[in-house]
Amino acid sequence: MADPRYSTPIAAVVADDVLERFLRYVQVDTQSDDDSETYPSTAKQLDLGKLLADELREIGLEDVELTEHGYVFATLPGSGGPTVLGADDKAGVAEIMGAVAYLAAHPDIDHAPIRVGFTVDEEVGRGVDHFDIERFGADFAYTLDGSEIGRIDDETFSASEVRIRIEGHSVHPGTSKDKMVNAIKLAAHIVERLPQDDRSPETTEGREGFVHPTRITGTTAEAELRFIARDFDAQKLAEHEQLLRSLADEVSAEEPRATLTVTVEESYRNMKEFLDADPAVTEAADEATRRTGLEPWREPIRGGTDGSMLSARGLLTPNIYTGAHQFHSVLEWASVQDMAASAATIVELVKLWAEPEWATRRSGTSDRTAASPR
Could you read off the pLDDT of 62-116 as tens digits, one per residue? Predict the structure, then answer.
């Protein structure tokens, strides 16, 4: 049987275009900086934004803009209600650009209007900090981000960042007996008391959550530990956060001369609790995948997407596969066939939302659709 990734007409047409764009985009250095106070966190991310804005104008899209925060927005008019597409990973970027280029070149195709958006800083969890949903102008959206072919994501971790700051007391080591309070050693005490057989990325899978130390900095006088806490269940996430508070309290009780401060900041929420309120948004992505000859499948993401935060803010945003593999490693890769299949899924999705049957499935809303990668 022929592989549907090769035989789908739309995928075959867009394959070369998607590959050409992907190879062009990966040459642009867009790495974020987690410690930066600016937005975007690195100026070089704007280089890709400028390139995308120019290409969108060349394709013929309307209202192309590169915002002050580095977002790229554009509109492709349609014959039904408005839609949204956006991306931050370069496979997703290439797929969205390939899909809208195909639609712009085939005005005879009946499709919903498309609103296109590209974000910055998703990899450091700040992709939509300044994302203006009203300005974006869609009723719902889809991200295009790393996942295996045919996978539609509607569930993510809920996540928070926990920081433990330790203030010790530095004295010259030659005269420090009964005086020095070494913040680095106290930080080490906290790390060594973390669960050894569970609650860590190294020991969990599936729907199991974890507490993960990601960074330790400091001196004898002061130190800081950074953790990420993750779980699909909000109550269990709260338990992970409390574990870290309790460990800090223990060390503080053992060394009362030190000052330990714990801060917890919500990173994102499990998108499923919001998407379940309107199943048609995710079901449409399933159907669009089927129309490309693939069978959609779902699995909880042991991570998050920009869609997690957008869904919590009211813009329902499940994720569509890009076909990428080996994420965040030196072996990360994507095949042109999978990227073409993803682009074809986008085309089928916006065609679908122009159909009366689907346009009326979302009770109490208009018939606008959106797609946006993590």
Answer: 899 999 999 999 999 986 474 454 434 889 999 999 999 999 999 999 999 999 9
Residues of the chain with CATH 3.40.630.10: 4-155+270-359
Which CATH number among 3.40.50.980, 3.40.50.1100, 3.40.630.30, 3.30.70.360 corresponds to the domain 158-267? 3.30.70.360
Confirm if 72 and 88 have CB atoms less than 8 A apart. Answer: no
Residues 150, 148: Cα–Cα separation, whole Å? 6
Matching residue, tokens 């609103």: 115
Q: Which CATH architecture has domain 4-155+270-359?
A: 3-Layer(aba) Sandwich (3.40)
Q: Rounded to whole angstroms, how far apart are CA atoms 188 and 185?
A: 5
Q: What is the mean pLDDT of the chain?
A: 90
DSSP state of 275: H
Instruction: Give residue 123's pLDDT.
Output: 76
**Phi-psi map region of 161: left, alpha, beta (phi>0 left; psi -120 to 50 alpha):** beta
Length, in residues, of the chain: 374
Terminal Cα-to-Cα distance of the chain (whole angstroms): 33
Look at residue 7 in the predicted model and tell me its pLDDT.
Answer: 56
- Kindly list the distances between the CA atom of residue 352 and the CA atoms of 62, 96, 165, 171, 346, in Å, as whole numbers in the listed order: 22, 16, 52, 69, 10
Please list the ranges in the chain whose pLDDT falls under 70.
1-7, 79-80, 82-88, 363-374
Cβ proximity of 212 and 202 under 8 Å: no
Pairing mode, strands 158-167 and 259-268: antiparallel
Sign of torsion, CA 33 39 40 44?
negative
Q: What is the pLDDT of residue 105?
A: 94
